[in-house]
Amino acid sequence: MSLRLSTVILPVDRWHEGGRATWQRAEELGFHAAYTYDHLSWRTFRNGPWFGALPTLTAAATATQRMRLGTLVTSPNFRHPVTLAKELISLDDVSGGRITLGIGAGGNGFDATVLGQEQPWTPKERADRFGEFLPLLDRLLTEDSVSQRGTFYSAEEAFNIPGCVQRPRLPFAVAATGPRGLKLAAKYGQAWVTTGDPKIFDEGTPEQSVQALRGQIEKLGKACAETGRDTAELDKVLLTGFTPDRGRPLESVAAFVDFAGRHQELGFTELVIHWPIPDSDFAADQGVFERIATEALAQLG
């Protein structure tokens, strides 16, 4: 499968003051997909503008025509499967069937306690919840009516007619690196998402990152085998910017081609690069970024 290039647009601009223009420019540049983060606030952007993911994607769906759209990623931190399913079905309808749901177990960021819990869920608690959240969401998006009583999430005659435009439902891109998450990706995912190994972000090397990613893909393969699924059925998505390479691949077209080639050889089918934001961790030269979008993939051997 040929490599696809996508972007992630952080929801930091007012729609009528640059937001709409950014999403439209992403489509003009030919990106396969444009995603956004599904958080209520995030890291260094916490004290500045930050808009909701699903309303932003709804607006983007009306401002674009061809490009796929999605979250990267949604999590149970402040979501419930019943309400999320209704919103996703509506979003898929507005977009004409262009939505991909990136979804993961969540983490320890600001979203983890914003609803009032005193402590973030432990990794085990997050895995337990995700293990219940994803199968229920799958049912809600594929069945007209769902009733299910769970430990963490329940539904009582939750109606979702007419369902998704995409059949049997919109695709899931499951973010996971641990064994339980990888099994969920193998069973429910149409794609698998990773950001690399966070343990080597600060002091690791690009070579170590490639090795870590190779190991993750091997574990995904084992999870697929246990599920009776061919790993080739899943797209493999790397959200860039969180490996030891950091922003260096966006410094030039040549640097990105080298980075993309190494990760294509590992088996990745989609690379996602951050739309530049000045004076942030995602600062990059806009002109170089646009040249990467329009020229880089053609240079891959």
What does this molecule look like?
With 301 residues, the chain is α/β, with parallel strands linked by helices. 37% of the residues lie in helices and 16% in strands. The strands form two sheets. An eight-stranded parallel beta barrel has the order 1-2-3-4-7-8-9-10, surrounded by four helices. A two-stranded antiparallel sheet has the order 5-6. The longest helix is centred in the last third of the chain and has 22 residues, at 206-227. It is globular and about 55 Å long. The two termini are 13 Å apart. The relative contact order is 0.13.
Quick overview of this protein structure:
With 301 residues, the chain is an alpha/beta fold.
Main attributes?
alpha/beta; two-stranded antiparallel ribbon; eight-stranded parallel β-barrel
**Helix-strand string:** EHEHEHEHEEEHEHEHEH
Strand content: 15-25%
User: What would you report as the Rg, rounded to the nearest angstrom?
Assistant: 19 Å
Question: Globular, elongated, flat, extended or rod-shaped: what is the shape?
Answer: globular
The strands making up the biggest β-sheet line up spatially as 1-2-3-4-7-8-9-10
Structural class, by secondary structure, is: alpha/beta
Question: What is the total tally of β strands?
Answer: 10
Distance between the termini: 13 Å
The profile of the biggest β sheet is: 8 strands, parallel, barrel
Mean pLDDT: 97
Roughly what percent helix? 25-40%
Q: Any low-confidence stretches, pLDDT <50, length ≥5?
A: none
Number of helices: 8
Topology of this protein?
Elements: E1 4-8, H1 19-28, E2 33-36, H2 53-63, E3 68-74, H3 81-95, E4 99-103, H4 123-142, E5 145-148, E6 155-159, E7 172-175, H5 179-188, E8 191-194, H6 206-227, E9 235-239, H7 253-266, E10 270-274, H8 286-295
Parallel strand pairs: 1-2, 1-10, 2-3, 3-4, 4-7, 7-8, 8-9, 9-10
Antiparallel strand pairs: 5-6
Helix pairs in contact: 2-3, 3-4, 4-5, 5-6
